[in-house]
């Protein structure tokens, strides 16, 4: 649900400069091309600049370099997308949590559930689990024995926490996520596989978001750890003993093998693969489908799957690869010209051989 605000109040609460009518009422959020009077939009990607002149939005969040072209009221910022995020939070009222336990929920007598928590239909909560204040456990979730969930966290629906998982405060976990399942620990015995018991747990920090169908394995001996403020997209695989530093963001379909340590403030774009037992420094950024096979000890941007190299090296390599066909054709043309010249002057090779013989 959206709540209307004065544009002046929005500017004050987001800390940006307002150019235009402070009394303009903003009641909705829309993209530039679909905006109507009363809505606010933003422009951070230049691909959408073409919609700026024709938009019907009452206000637009944009950078100072675009202010002259803005046909409406403006909120001016060097980071329009960040301001948009703050405005969207300001205007969005989260659904009210109605405390209580649904009759169909199955809760162990030894579980501790704060009176302000909501337990939805079909939830299973096992022995000695602890559910904090204002926690929202959505329909069909399973909370394993000994799990702890911090205040104001929300499990949307069908989330599985295996035993002894610890969830911090204000954590958001989307449907289908599985946290604390066994890691892929196997020892080989003459071609047969022997399971290694996974004795660790999973610890999730505060203000973490975990996407739909993402899986986080429990540790083999020590815990798998997800730091404060980490944001995980959908369908990510995080193996046993992995540690992810605070405020790192990881996009969909990333796979991180066991015992790798990812630093703080890193970003991993979609489809990145990270092999096991690596150390990745803080402020390291991998572009989409990068294959990471070695530790990275300093901040930077990295790309490629042959394996990862510094981003500027990869860009040069790609540029040369794109020129290969043209370069190959030029070499063929030169070879053809050489052959033609030899045919036109058959005595050239003989003269060259005689010249070399005299030198010798």
General description of the model:
The protein folds into three domains: 5-91, MurE/MurF, N-terminal domain (Udp-n-acetylmuramoylalanyl-d-glutamate--2,6- Diaminopimelate Ligase, Chain: A, domain 1), CATH 3.40.1390; 100-313, UDP N-Acetylglucosamine Acyltransferase, domain 1 (3 Solenoid); 327-359. 18% of the residues lie in helices and 28% in strands. The longest helix has 21 residues, at 324-344. The protein contains five helices and 40 strands. The protein has 360 residues and is an alpha/beta fold. Strands 8-11-14-17-20-25-28-31-34-37-39-40 form a twelve-stranded mixed β-sheet, covered by helices on one side. It has a ten-stranded parallel β-sheet with strand order 9-12-15-18-21-26-29-32-35-38, with no helix packed on it. The chain has a nine-stranded parallel β-sheet with strand order 10-13-16-19-24-27-30-33-36, with no helix packed on it. The radius of gyration is 29 Å and the shape is flat.
**Percent range for β-strand residues:** 25-35%
Q: Number of helix segments?
A: 5
Q: What is the number of independent domains? A: 3
Report the principal-axis shape.
flat
Q: Please give the share of residues in helix.
A: 10-25%
- CATH superfamily name of the largest domain? Hexapeptide repeat proteins
**What is the terminal-to-terminal distance?**
93 Å
**Uncertain segments:** none
Strand arrangement in the largest pleated sheet: 8-11-14-17-20-25-28-31-34-37-39-40
Largest sheet: 12 strands, mixed
Structural class: alpha/beta
Query: Do you know the CATH architecture of the largest domain?
Result: 3 Solenoid
What do the pLDDT scores average to?
A: 93
Radius of gyration: 29 Å
Main CATH class of the largest domain:
Mainly Beta
Got a strand count? Answer: 40
- Stated plainly, the CATH topology of the largest domain is called UDP N-Acetylglucosamine Acyltransferase, domain 1
